[in-house]
């Protein structure tokens, strides 16, 4: 908790709002910066979106505003001015006084951030009680009003619940109510809607925006999701590798982004209104201590020149209130949001059916979770299964893949009726139907090398062995854009995107005709998602592979799918070609999903 | 007892989401053993253990007196380094001769307990359902006996325990405890997608266990093995102390404590020498186990 | 977002409040199930005890040793006592029936009823374990809290290293070292052996109790303390403690209200295990200090192959383990809201 104050700088006086100057956070004992050179202003009543991918340091900046850093890191320099008072140079008793009452924090994952052993009513009023603010009755009334404000029940029964008795959206709204109760001036929200369904997310975001408006609170909204930011923020700051790369009003940021990183990020995001050829950003975000000299993005930047490798560029103003940390910002041309738009998949193309699912009913024990689902999949086609959590989309894909065996109905694969579990199916069908899992951190055995992992299906299905198999592994790795030096690595050395590519290579090693992709991009950053989607599209075109693509992201469906099944509570609500369903949805549920999905287009 | 299940988070984590990606690439992740070697407590423990094992193996050839040789009057402090015991045998020589049985039984008993326990635990976790239920119920039965009690109950009906009986007793009393841990660790692995992926490919079940599940358990299991060895030393020593050893005439650290107890006031070294060497042995193996446990906790993330 | 876990309850679906009358029935079912399992375990334990003592070897041969062939009269007498002619099943059920009706049989060695022989030692051992627990629990928690207060700094490291060293030591090593230090060699403060009158209790002279209690405490506290420290640390690193700090809650309140409350359950579990562990520890400790409890009696009976006494004592120790575990489970559930509400709804 050290803080140096540069005393000669003129204090910025403002009523409300928050000013961050030259903030840096370092790793304890190593003097490696996690974030540095952060300057940011939150005007009163304004919502600023702080956007970044994994490893960008956005959460670190968020908690620094409360003079807090996690174990292993400390705030090295800078000032955080709240009405002219520097929070970083306060005594810690004062800091504690500021926390909660003046600056409140809404956590990333409220399900684990609410104490599991304290009833929520008690947790909401805890701070006021400790500070002795108000009377017992007024505090309780405040809690009730707060809960009502976020659209939750405020009766005694609800107040006496524990966090685990609430749903994800409820927990998040409780966290919001708790943060607002002491009437803070500034709010720091750390990815508060990650993991929520779009409808729940929309509800939480509306609530938040409404509260900020009515109470005149300024907010820093930390997130990885540009689309969310496009919906709620007044201004946007894009972070990369511990620095702010670009900062400006929302409209400017989405209409004329000027940093190559911002542009690449926007290029990798799917749109609801058009199919896009998504692209990714090559390489991976460098970790603290491994960042390149000069511009931190130079090793992944398409526009980098020698000068970019020399000095760290300063943030400079290119338009009113719009700053960019790039020396070539004026030279790299303009950008257009509709860049990359491609025609939608033709709804009237000829279909050559390879997999058909007929009257599928799935059970967990006595629970009937999927009801009468039928659809089919043609060669070189991508059918998307879309739904919120609990819709049964993953359950369907697992049953088709033979990972879940408690189902009835018929699944026909190229003329063969498939047995319930993978073990009962014959080797050919196992080989031709490959499953790719959601979380690449769990789907690769950390004890095996990449070579062993990718080779195994070839040995098992008698496709190749020995030297020949190794050669084919190298070929496959090349196809998924991984170099041959990966062969001897263990999966634990790879980034999430690289792992998912290995998982795809493993599936390809079996020479499949159908891939079942279970939310395979949802654990990855958007720029990585973009490149994975591009890879899958290439495989579909070149190899004619068909895919069952499970996702909760409707925009992604537009870019990757040709057909779509919208699921709700284990039933198909609407189905058809992607264009038809997304342009002219017939069902209320689909329309609702589409309208609640955050969009940047 | 169960393994030390402490969950210390001593690594630096900046935030859940921003765990720094691994440093610029070493070809393969170092094995548990190599990682453990970087722990001071592990190297110290390993050093002590290796020295003691060497002592147990080679000391009998270097002992100044024979195992049952009378060196002087009983409880004589003047003879040799540690004086004599209740029969006038040289304490130092008895200590030098007396580690074989304890080491052999502790090692083999631990090994047996580990093998049995891992087999039970992994089958229960991987088999699930009915297998799990039955195996764990039976496990509970043996768990209800403190380890020493299990040994004593069986020894009641036997005239004289042979070394094999003691090994089996030590092993069987460890097995359910190891099994509980192994099951817990295995449960965390069999539900991971790479095991399910192997199932979906149609790998044989034995291969799934041997190639996918077990290799991911080695750090916690090694730690448990070290801990079990520590407890085995205590258990075998305690049995010797209670008068249950395979050969009552032979020198045996545990039994030496029993034999010379009454002389503790007059010739403390006759008791303290074997006690201290058992203590050092146990501390060594325990440090080693804890060093591996630290590595196991940090795990793959 | 795998649906597997969440498929049952959609997040949009409001969670039903705990239902009162339903809750009581659920609790009753749960407790009945746990009791049933405990009884099943004890029944299997009885089979194991019986088989190990009566069927594994020949106790009569073991008792008589060389006299076995020389003294057929005594053999016949013992066979009659053990009812050796009957089948193993009928002997087992006779014995089990006796256990259930409180008839523990007759000691082979002394010819007196087992229940009479063991009642004194049972009380003495209970007292010893009770004293050890009363000292061990606060001491372990205190050490853990001191350690956590200085977490990852020097005092913590020193405490952890010392605890780690002691944690590996067998009970007899600790006992002998304490004897040498406090009774026989360095300081002669406490008696080395327990002398008590046949009519009185050993704890009539408090000094007698010190060394056995201390040995047990030193034997188990390091372990308990390390576990409690670990679970406290885990809680302290948790997100809800972080949020409490970011909310501006004073550190003392964070520790007491947010951390300790959630760390107490693992503490209860480990204490229960250790109490059962103490029941095994008394065997060696009582022998070392000649303390007249069930441990000493058990060792004597094993040496004398006194099958009936060993059977009775083993059943008592195993029952203590099962009961203590049952209580610990119950307490853990009561103190964990998630588990509690899971049962009642």
UniProtKB/TrEMBL annotation, chain A:
Q: Which PROSITE patterns match?
A: ABC_TRANSPORTER_1, ABC_TRANSPORTER_2
Q: Which terms does the UniProt entry file under GO BP?
A: peptide transport
GO molecular function annotation: ATP binding; ATP hydrolysis activity
The record's annotation in Pfam families points to: ABC_tran, oligo_HPY
Compartments, record wording: Cell membrane
Residue ranges constituting the ABC transporter domain according to the UniProt record: 18-266, 355-594
Q: Which GO terms describe its cellular component?
A: plasma membrane
Keyword annotations for this protein, in alphabetical order, are: ATP-binding, Cell inner membrane, Cell membrane, Membrane, Nucleotide-binding, Translocase, Transport
Q: How does it sit in the membrane?
A: Peripheral membrane protein
Q: Which domain of life is it from?
A: Bacteria
The record ties this protein, via SMART domains, to:
AAA (SM00382)
Question: Which family is this protein grouped under?
Answer: Belongs to the ABC transporter superfamily.
- Protein name per Swiss-Prot or TrEMBL: ABC transporter ATP-binding protein
**What species does this protein belong to?**
Nocardioides agariphilus
From TrEMBL, chain B:
Report membrane topology: Multi-pass membrane protein
According to UniProt, the name of this protein is ABC transporter permease
Membrane-crossing residue ranges in chain numbering: 42-63, 102-126, 226-246, 266-289
Sorted alphabetically, which PROSITE patterns does this protein's record hold? ABC_TM1
Q: Record's Pfam families?
A: BPD_transp_1, OppC_N
List all Basic and acidic residues biased stretches: 1-12
Taxonomic superkingdom = Bacteria
CDD domains documented for this protein: TM_PBP2 (cd06261)
InterPro entries annotated for this entry?
Answer: BP-dependent_transpt_permease, MetI-like, MetI-like_sf, OppC_N
The Gene Ontology CC terms held by the record are: plasma membrane
Chaperone: is it a keyword of this entry?
no
Provide the species name: Nocardioides agariphilus
Q: Which GO terms describe its biological process?
A: transmembrane transport
Q: Give the region (Disordered) as residue ranges.
A: 1-30
Which keywords has UniProt assigned to this entry? Cell membrane, Membrane, Transmembrane, Transmembrane helix, Transport
Enumerate the spans annotated as ABC transmembrane type-1 domain: 99-289
Q: Which segment of the chain is annotated as a signal peptide? A: none
Q: Where in the cell is it found?
A: Cell membrane
Family classification:
Belongs to the binding-protein-dependent transport system permease family.
Automatic annotation (TrEMBL), chain C:
Domain ABC transmembrane type-1, chain residue ranges per copy: 122-328
The regions listed as transmembrane in this protein's record are 35-56, 126-150, 162-186, 206-224, 264-289, 309-335
Source superkingdom: Bacteria
UniProt membrane topology term: Multi-pass membrane protein
SUPFAM superfamilies associated with the record: MetI-like
Give GO BP annotations, semicolon-separated. transmembrane transport
State the UniProt keywords alphabetically.
Cell membrane, Membrane, Transmembrane, Transmembrane helix, Transport
* Compartment list: Cell membrane
Which GO cellular component term is one of those annotated?
plasma membrane
Family, per the entry?
A: Belongs to the binding-protein-dependent transport system permease family.
Q: What's the protein here called?
A: ABC transporter permease
């Amino acid at each position: 908790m050290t803080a140096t104050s540069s005393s000669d700088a003129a204090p910025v006086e403002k009523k409300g709002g928050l000013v961050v100057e030259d903030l840096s956070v370092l790793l304890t004992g190593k003097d490696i910066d996690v974030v540095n050179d952060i300057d940011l202003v939150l005007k009163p009543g304004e919502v600023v979106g702080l956007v970044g991918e994994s490893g960008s340091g956005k959460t670190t900046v968020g908690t620094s505003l409360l003079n807090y850093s996690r174990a292993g890191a400390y705030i090295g320099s800078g000032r955080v001015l709240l009405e002219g008072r520097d929070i970083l140079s306060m005594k810690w008793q004062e800091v504690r006084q500021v926390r909660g009452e003046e600056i409140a924090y809404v956590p990333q994952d409220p399900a684990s951030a609410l104490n599991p052993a304290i009833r929520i009513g008690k947790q909401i009023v805890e701070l006021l009680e400790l500070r002795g603010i108000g009377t017992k009755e007024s505090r309780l009334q405040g809690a009730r009003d707060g809960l009502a404000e976020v659209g939750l029940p405020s009766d005694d029964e609800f107040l006496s619940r524990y966090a685990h008795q609430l749903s994800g959206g409820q927990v998040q709204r409780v966290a919001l109510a708790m943060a607002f109760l002491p009437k803070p001036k500034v709010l720091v929200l750390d990815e508060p809607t990650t993991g929520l369904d779009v409808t729940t997310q929309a509800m939480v975001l509306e609530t938040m925006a409404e509260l900020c408006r009515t109470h005149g609170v300024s907010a820093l909204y930390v997130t990885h999701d540009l689309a969310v930011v496009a919906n709620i923020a007044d201004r946007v700051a894009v972070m990369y590798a511990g620095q702010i790369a670009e900062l400006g009003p929302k409209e400017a940021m989405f209409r004329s982004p000027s940093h190559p990183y911002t542009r690449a990020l926007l290029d990798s995001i799917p749109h609801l209104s058009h199919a896009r050829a998504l692209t990714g950003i090559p390489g991976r975000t460098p970790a603290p201590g491994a960042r390149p000299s000069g511009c931190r993005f130079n090793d992944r930047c398409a526009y980098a020149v020698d000068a970019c490798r020399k000095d760290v560029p300063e943030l400079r103003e290119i338009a009113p209130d719009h700053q960019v940390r790039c020396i070539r910002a004026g030279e790299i041309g303009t950008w257009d949001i509709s860049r990359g738009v491609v025609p939608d998949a033709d709804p009237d193309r000829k279909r050559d059916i390879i997999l058909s699912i007929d009257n599928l009913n799935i059970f967990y024990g006595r629970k009937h979770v999927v009801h009468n689902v039928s659809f089919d999949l043609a060669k070189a086609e991508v059918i998307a299964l879309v739904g919120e959590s609990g819709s049964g989309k993953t359950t369907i894909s697992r049953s088709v893949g033979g990972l879940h065996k408690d189902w009835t109905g018929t699944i026909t694969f190229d003329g063969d009726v498939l047995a319930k579990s993978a073990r009962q199916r014959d080797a050919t069908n196992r080989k031709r139907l490959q499953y790719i899992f959601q979380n690449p951190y769990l789907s690769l055995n950390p004890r095996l090398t990449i070579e062993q992992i990718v080779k195994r299906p070839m040995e098992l299905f008698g496709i190749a062995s020995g030297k020949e198999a190794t050669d084919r592994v190298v070929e496959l790795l090349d196809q998924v854009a991984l170099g041959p030096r990966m062969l001897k690595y263990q999966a634990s050395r790879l980034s999430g995107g690289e792992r998912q590519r290995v998982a795809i290579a493993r599936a390809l090693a079996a020479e499949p005709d159908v891939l079942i992709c279970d939310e395979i991009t949802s654990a990855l950053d958007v720029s990585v998602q973009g490149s994975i989607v591009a890879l899958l599209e290439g495989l579909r075109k070149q190899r004619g592979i068909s895919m069952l693509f499970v996702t909760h992201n409707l925009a992604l469906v537009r870019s990757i799918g040709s057909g779509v099944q919208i699921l709700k509570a284990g039933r198909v609500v609407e189905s058809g070609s992607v264009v038809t369903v997304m342009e002219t949805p017939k069902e209320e549920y689909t329309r609702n999903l589409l309208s609640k999905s955050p969009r940047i287009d | 007892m169960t393994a030390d299940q402490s969950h210390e988070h001593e690594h630096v984590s900046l935030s859940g989401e921003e765990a720094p990606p691994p440093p610029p690439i070493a070809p393969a992740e170092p094995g548990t053993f190599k990682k453990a070697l970087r722990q001071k407590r592990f190297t110290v423990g390993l050093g002590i253990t290796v020295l003691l094992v060497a002592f147990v193996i080679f000391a009998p050839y270097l002992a100044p007196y024979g195992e049952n040789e009378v060196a002087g009057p009983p409880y004589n402090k003047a003879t040799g380094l540690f004086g004599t015991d209740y029969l006038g045998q040289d304490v130092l020589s008895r200590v030098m001769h007396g580690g074989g049985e304890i080491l052999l039984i502790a090692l083999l008993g631990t090994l047996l307990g580990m093998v049995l326990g891992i087999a039970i635990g992994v089958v229960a976790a991987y088999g699930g359902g009915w297998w799990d239920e039955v195996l764990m119920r039976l496990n509970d039965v043996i768990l209800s006996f403190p380890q020493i009690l299990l040994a004593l109950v069986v020894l009641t009906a036997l005239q004289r325990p042979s070394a094999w009986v003691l090994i089996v007793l030590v092993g069987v009393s460890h097995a359910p405890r190891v099994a509980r841990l192994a099951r817990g660790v295995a449960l965390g692995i069999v539900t991971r997608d790479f095991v399910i992926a192997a199932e979906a490919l149609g790998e044989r079940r034995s291969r799934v266990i041997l190639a996918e599940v077990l290799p991911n358990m080695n750090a916690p299991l090694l730690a448990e093995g070290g801990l079990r060895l520590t407890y085995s030393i205590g258990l075998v020593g305690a049995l010797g102390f209670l008068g249950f050893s395979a050969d009552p005439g032979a020198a045996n650290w545990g039994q030496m404590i029993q034999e010379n107890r009454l002389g503790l006031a007059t010739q403390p070294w006759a008791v303290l020498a074997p006690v201290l060497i058992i203590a050092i042995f146990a501390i060594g193996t325990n440090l080693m186990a804890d060093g591996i446990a630290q590595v196991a906790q940090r795990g793959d993330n | 977002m795998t649906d597997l876990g969440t498929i049952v309850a959609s997040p949009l679906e409001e969670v039903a409040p705990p239902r009162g009358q339903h809750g009581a029935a659920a609790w009753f079912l749960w407790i009945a199930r746990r009791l049933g399992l405990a009884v099943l375990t004890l029944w299997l334990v009885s089979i194991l005890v019986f088989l190990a003592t009566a069927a594994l070897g020949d106790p009569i041969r073991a008792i008589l040793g060389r006299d076995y062939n020389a003294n057929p009269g005594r053999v016949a007498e013992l066979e009659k006592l053990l009812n050796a002619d009957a089948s193993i099943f009928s002997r087992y059920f006779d014995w089990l029936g006796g256990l259930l009706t409180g008839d523990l049989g007759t000691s082979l060695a002394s010819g007196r009823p087992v229940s009479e022989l063991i009642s004194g030692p049972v009380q003495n051992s209970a007292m010893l374990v009770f004293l050890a627990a009363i000292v061990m629990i606060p001491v372990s928690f205190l050490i853990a809290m001191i350690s956590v207060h200085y977490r990852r700094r020097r005092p913590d490291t020193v405490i952890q290293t010392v605890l780690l060293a002691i944690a590996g030591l067998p009970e007899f090593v600790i006992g002998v070292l304490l004897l040498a230090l406090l009774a026989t060699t360095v300081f002669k403060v406490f008696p080395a052996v327990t002398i008590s009158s046949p009519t009185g209790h050993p704890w009539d002279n408090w000094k007698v109790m010190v060394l056995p209690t201390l040995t047990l405490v030193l034997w188990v506290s390091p372990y308990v303390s390390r576990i409690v420290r670990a679970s406290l640390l885990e809680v302290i690193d948790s997100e809800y403690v972080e949020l409490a700090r970011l909310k501006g809650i004073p550190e003392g309140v964070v520790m007491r209200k947010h951390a300790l409350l959630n760390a107490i359950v693992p503490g209860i579990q480990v204490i229960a295990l250790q109490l059962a562990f103490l029941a095994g520890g008394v065997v060696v400790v009582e022998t070392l200090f000649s303390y007249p409890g069930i441990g000493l009696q058990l060792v004597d009976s094993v040496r004398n192959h006194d099958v009936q006494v060993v059977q009775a004592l083993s059943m008592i120790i195993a029952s203590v383990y099962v009961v203590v575990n049952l209580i610990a489970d119950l307490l853990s559930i009561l103190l964990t809201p998630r588990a509690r509400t899971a049962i009642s709804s």
